[in-house]
Amino acid sequence: MLELLQLLKSKIEKLHLGGGPDKIQKHKEKGKLTAWERVFTLLDPGKTYVEIGRFAGDDLYTEHGGCPNAGVAVVMGYISGRLCVVVSNDATVKAGAWFPITAKKTLRAQEVAMENNLPIIYLVDSAGVYLPMQEEIFPDKEHFGRVFRNNAKLSSMGIPQISAIMGSCVAGGAYLPIMSDYALIVEGTGSVFLAGSYLVKSSIGEVIDNETLGGAHTHCEISGVTDNKYPDDESCLTAIRHIVDKFGDRPKANFSRIDAIAPAHGADFIPSYLPTDRLKAYDMREIIKALVDAGSMEEYKTDYGKTIICSLARIDGWAVGIVANQREVVKAKKAGNANEMQMGGVIYSDSADKAARFIMNCNQQRIPLVFLQDVTGFMVGSRSEHGGIIKDGAKMVNAMANSVVPKFTFIAGNSYGAGNYAMCGKAYDPRLIYAWPTAQMAVMSGASAGKTLLQIDEATMKNKGINLDEEARKKRLEDIEQQYNEQLSPYYAAARLWVDGVIDPRETRSIISLGIEAANHNPDIPRYNVGVIQV
């Protein structure tokens, strides 16, 4: 576990270097702060913040030189005491150009702002769309243009947007700051135009420099496109803080909160207790005790459906409903006083039924939900099928998918197949979703997938008259499992934004607390309606 946490720490440190020390040096020679320096200058010092989209782009686009952290830093944190979302382009990564994952991460930032009614600040320093990949970022529904659609939607929702043009802002990207409520610009480094000087010359023959075409003086004194100009990054960021501290307060959802109590287990308990061996059993209740306020757990149906733990509790004073996979082997009572041994991490009919009921209760009572995943899937075999595992699983998925209270998901270990869905995977709109370094996410485990794929390969080759000997079978199985296991990595998931990042388990409690505080800013909770429930 210590090795996994050290790897995580080193990878995070590397992210803050963006395009590397040389690119940072050239960036600073222009008198500009780095993307992360801008973020930390803007945020209230000493206050908690949460990074969203950490490791997006990790090991992607290697043939193009890579795009670390998707070329943009995104955080949720406090500015002048107000919780906000900040999007800061990293111009040390391909001049801040937009790769497909950059658009996906920026859209995720806007989604967080919309869901939680949070002001969003854009620190713009971008060369626009990365042209060699324009077909993967330009025309589709979830591509570059969706950002400006969201600008308009955010405005219609009354959610404040502030943009600071701190570097290049060209072509279609120029609409992002100008569709914001406030558009600020830094003198000398900031520029905004639909077409730069070279394109203007080639298009209409006009010879003009970029500063005259779209610099700070032009847009603040002539066009009125931007509001005010500032001599440097620091003064521009100070102006943003002054604007935010004038925002009026809004109605809240009023989720229950009382004074916080420290957990029964200390912060270092989870890394010392959680096994890195995916086959080793452990008691998820002990993990929960390290997250919730001491003495606040009120478990639901303790002796029924034991492979899922459902419990009311408080985290940092906030009331929550916890749905967690139990990894211990448990003994389930059956009719006629018979006992059934149930495997930990597997969802059985009784546990699915219990979880569905609990989720519905939490929605009726406006209690946010926290999902702790370590799930290998639903139970299979004739006994489970005849017992109706599919309809019981459908009941749980229905109750969870239609949930109207905020949901927060953390992948502690396995996250396989339909278990990922039932335990509120990314497809089911958790407000935030993070993986621990011990997480693995796929349709099934590497060992199971390897054997299945090998059987398919053997059948295909047999049809061609080719029979594999034992040595060839072993080599083929090893190759399949190696490739599959690479895709199980939490960093593989984070690179593609299937999760919002990989975190140290010790960050979990503060992320949940900040997440519920953010959700509390949106009082619009619709009526809970699960539709048709399978019984």
List the helices and strands and how they pair.
Layout: H1 2-15, H2 21-29, H3 35-42, E1 50-51, E2 72-79, E3 82-89, H4 100-116, E4 120-126, H5 145-156, E5 161-170, H6 175-178, E6 182-186, E7 191-193, H7 197-204, H8 210-214, H9 216-223, E8 228-230, H10 233-244, H11 269-273, H12 284-289, E9 298-300, E10 308-315, E11 318-325, E12 330-334, E13 338-342, E14 346-347, H13 349-364, E15 369-375, E16 377-378, H14 382-386, H15 389-401, E17 407-416, H16 417-422, E18 432-435, E19 440-442, H17 446-463, H18 470-488, H19 490-495, H20 508-519
Parallel strand pairs: 3-4, 4-5, 5-6, 5-7, 6-8, 11-15, 14-16, 15-17, 17-18, 17-19
Antiparallel strand pairs: 1-2, 2-3, 9-10, 10-11, 12-13
Task: Give the key terms.
single chain, 535 residues, alpha/beta, eight-stranded mixed sheet, seven-stranded mixed sheet, 20 helices, 19 strands, 38% helix, 19% strand, globular, ClpP/crotonase-like_dom_sf, EC 6.-.-.-, ligase, AcCoA_carboxyl_beta, COA_CT_N
